[in-house]
Design a protein that fits this description.
The complex is a heterodimer of chains A (566) and B (192). Chain A has 566 residues and is of the alpha+beta class. Helices cover 39% and strands 15% of the residues of chain A. Chain B has one domain: HybD-like (Rossmann fold, 3-Layer(aba) Sandwich), CATH 3.40.50.1450. Helices cover 30% and strands 19% of the residues of chain B. The chains are: A alpha+beta (566), B alpha/beta (192).
């Protein structure tokens, strides 16, 4: 008979996600993903001035502020028919590159590495052996005996004080933990270094956005940054070079540490290159536009169905009807009133809570579909589309990562292994390397354009009368994000956000087809039902973020995550 | 070269030694109280250059750059604690750190406890940390504070001021403060 395990909430993510799995013979046989908090923040936008939408939408989530802001101005600009200046496009690209780098580094080292790394075991690591191993993998100058020794001493002091600091609540000594003490020490050391580099990436965003979180420099029609190379208050040469320094430092960390660590740790868990595929339909949107209209992009986007890379189809522009006409959301199994599948322009958001019904409604998350099919979004989707369409930087960084992993694993790792739990981590590191490179390229394009004497950052515009509609998309750190707006006589009549975690964490649709989280858990091993580390591994690999809901501090320290074995 | 520009940016290792940070999602009713208290403080009081005063939303682990290397941090937030709506309470670092070990501060980690623990491990935790908490009444989707929490804002502001004075930070009440203009309570806001 099947054992049911309820993990509520999943920890080390933003927001409230409940996962139920039925386990039989040590494997997951059935699964449900349930968003436990109502969003519906779109309702606040109705009747408002569309120029305010980005200020409000960037507050939906405390972690993904920048991505909602950028997507919102793109949506309103599309509705209004506004073409923004090249400088504005490139400044936005630098912001989204900085944000993505920050987000990917945090996700791997601070939110998910502890699923794979046994911190307590790192105390047994020999700093000399660790340095030898690290130096054989990477030229990173901070892979020194001294550095590893210092971290080991720090960790010993922590444990001696009876605390594990940030590593409390880990699954230490779990039978599914397999790294050597040296690799564990290496990972803990890079955890600390990653704290520094994620901040450098964030700082680049803060210089341009004047504040993070919640950047302040956007506007429908461009950006509010004044460019004046001799003015302290404006975007000047000193600030531009400061941004370049930061991006270069982060790029070195990504190429020499993050990508290497993911490939190495991945290679030491080769079985996880076989679990966790789930939905192999992929959706990514193009980003880092190179022109004012949004018809040429440095990051490709498109669709792949059934894992068939040869059949990949690209999205060609910000207005591509292939994207516009194929997105729907279904509420058959979500806590909203009715039972419909609708295009975002036609949706409504009326809550209707039942209870957790296995065969009925069980989540606050709607189920997005593309051409009626569930789609996996995120770095893996983007890297696969890039690989399938011959995007040179993606192919190059992917080959490097695969080369490192193959050498350590002693097996030939290939693109087919990417459809997996660890494949998602590997793809995220590859994407970070691509974005780090492109960020510096776009920095060069911006400086070149300014050098031509173009200081324009904003296109003035007038709101048209009557009804207009538009959509904007952005390939956010967690995948394809789109905002859809209907504007009537200068006011918002409808606004819908179709967010990456909705694509991935959504429930079954009207046809009973599972969403990507649900499908990815099927077949996963579960060694110990009371400590379902394997569930966390697969769910965390998507980089879940449901923080678009309430957060309230609870200083009385109530118990956090409950795991029930029924 | 970066130090000279720090004061002009926020969110990226601001060099000012003291921070007052308002946390909370301004779209969720009383969860906006942290950001509202910070905006009110800024309007009512003149603060010296050594103090950063910022509304930081719900940053999760992105709290790291706001806390790292500071001498003192005062966080203002809605709290799930005993007492009727509008109750203002203060917790210190020891209480927060012990909660980090036994359970977690926030039901939606990672957040404050996680950030603090990571910074203790890296050796960059602030020397002094206070949480000024306000018990909310309503945290459903919507703009604006409930009456009980709106009435508690002056008490929370004065609590922050008292803590700043204890830290030796000179603060001065403005003789003629203007209105507090937070866009989440002012629906006429426009972008540039």
């Amino acid at each position: 008979m099947a054992t049911r395990i309820v993990v509520d909430p999943i920890t080390r993510i933003e927001g409230h996600l409940r996962i139920d799995v039925e386990v039989e013979g040590g494997r997951v046989r059935n699964s449900w993903a349930s968003g436990q908090m109502w969003r519906g923040i779109e309702v606040i936008l109705q009747g408002r001035d569309p120029r305010d939408a980005w200020v409000i939408t960037q507050r939906i989530c405390g972690v993904c502020t920048t991505v909602h802001a950028i997507t919102s101005v793109r949506a309103v600009e599309a509705a209004m028919g506004i073409e923004i200046p090249l400088n504005a496009q490139l400044i936005r690209n630098l912001i989204l590159a900085g944000h993505a780098l920050h987000d990917h580094i945090v996700h791997f080292y601070h939110l998910s590495a502890l699923d794979w790394v046994d911190v307590v075991d790192a105390l047994k690591g020999d700093p000399k052996k660790t340095a030898r191993l690290a130096q054989s993998l990477s030229p990173w100058p901070r892979n020194s005996v001294k550095e590893f020794q210092a971290v080991k001493e720090k960790l010993e002091a922590f444990v001696a004080r009876g605390q594990l600091g940030p590593f409390t609540n880990g699954y230490w000594g779990h039978p599914a933990m397999k790294l050597s003490p040296e690799v564990n020490l290496l990972a803990v050391t890079h955890y600390l270094q990653a704290l520094e580099y994620q901040r450098k990436a964030n700082q680049a965003v803060a210089i341009l956005g004047s504040k993070t979180p919640n950047i302040q420099n956007l506007a429908v029609g461009g950006v509010a940054n004044a460019i004046n190379l001799d003015d302290d208050q404006a975007l000047n040469m000193a600030k531009l070079y400061w941004i370049k320094d930061l991006l270069e430092e982060v790029r070195a960390f990504v190429e020499q540490v993050y990508l290497v660590d993911v490939a190495a740790i991945g290679a030491m868990y080769p079985e996880w290159l076989g679990y966790g595929a789930g939905v192999t339909n992929y959706l990514a949107v193009p980003d880092m536009p190179l022109d004012t209209k949004g018809t040429e992009f440095d990051l490709p986007g498109g669709t792949i169905f059934g894992g068939n890379l040869k059949g990949a189809r690209r999205f060609e522009s910000f207005e591509d009807p292939y994207f516009r006409d194929n997105v729907t959301e279904c509420i058959a199994h979500a806590w909203y009133d009715g039972d419909w599948t609708r295009h975002p322009y036609e949706e409504e958001t009326v809550p209707h809570y039942t209870d957790f019904e296995d065969d009925g409604k069980y989540s606050w998350i709607k189920a997005p579909r593309f051409d009626g099919k569930p789609m996996q979004v995120g770095p893996l989707a983007q890297v696969l589309v890039g690989f399938a369409t011959g995007h040179e930087p993606t192919v190059r960084h992917l080959k490097r990562a695969i080369g490192i992993a193959s050498k350590i694993a002693g097996i030939q790792v290939g693109p087919k292994h990417l459809h997996s739990t660890l494949g998602r981590h590997l793809a995220r590191a590859v994407r970070a390397a691509v974005i780090a490179e492109l960020g510096l390229k776009h920095w060069g394009l911006l400086v070149e354009n300014i050098g031509k004497g173009d200081f324009t950052t904003f296109t003035p515009w007038d709101a048209p009368a009557g009804e207009v509609r538009g959509f904007g998309f952005h390939e956010a750190p967690r995948g394809a994000l789109s905002h859809w707006v209907v504007i009537r006589d200068g006011r918002i009549a409808n606004y819908q956000c179709v967010v990456p975690t909705t694509w991935n964490a959504g429930p079954r649709d009207a046809k009973g087809k599972k969403g990507p989280y649900e499908a990815s858990l099927l077949g996963n091993p579960i060694a110990d039902p009371k400590r379902p580390l394997e569930v966390l591994r697969t769910v965390h690999s998507f980089d879940p973020c449901l923080a678009c809901a309430i957060h309230t501090l609870d200083p009385e320290g109530s118990e956090l995550s409950k795991i029930q074995v029924l | 070269m970066s130090k000279g520009y720090g004061a002009k940016t926020r969110g990226g290792d601001d060099p000012r030694p003291v921070a007052v940070l308002g946390m909370g999602n301004v779209l969720l009713g009383d969860d906006a109280v942290g950001p509202t208290v910070v905006e009110t403080l800024r309007v009512w009081y003149e603060l010296p250059d050594e103090v950063e005063c910022a509304d930081i939303g719900t940053p999760g682990l992105d709290l790291v750059p706001h806390m790292a290397g500071r001498r003192a941090v005062i966080l203002v937030d809605a709290v799930a604690a005993a007492g009727p709506p509008g109750t203002v309470r203060v917790w210190d670092r020891e209480r927060i750190a012990s909660a980090a070990v036994t359970g977690r501060l926030s039901p939606h980690d990672p957040g404050l406890a996680e950030t603090l623990a990571a910074l203790e491990f890296s050796g960059e935790a602030p020397e002094v940390l206070h949480v000024v908490g306000i018990v909310p009444a309503e945290t459903g989707t919507g703009l604006g504070l409930s009456p009980a929490v709106r009435e508690a804002v002056p008490e929370a502001v004065e609590t922050v001021v008292r803590l700043l004075v204890e830290l030796g930070v000179p603060v001065r009440r403005r003789p003629d403060p203007g209105p507090v203009e937070a866009w989440w309570s002012d629906t006429t806001h426009r972008g540039p």
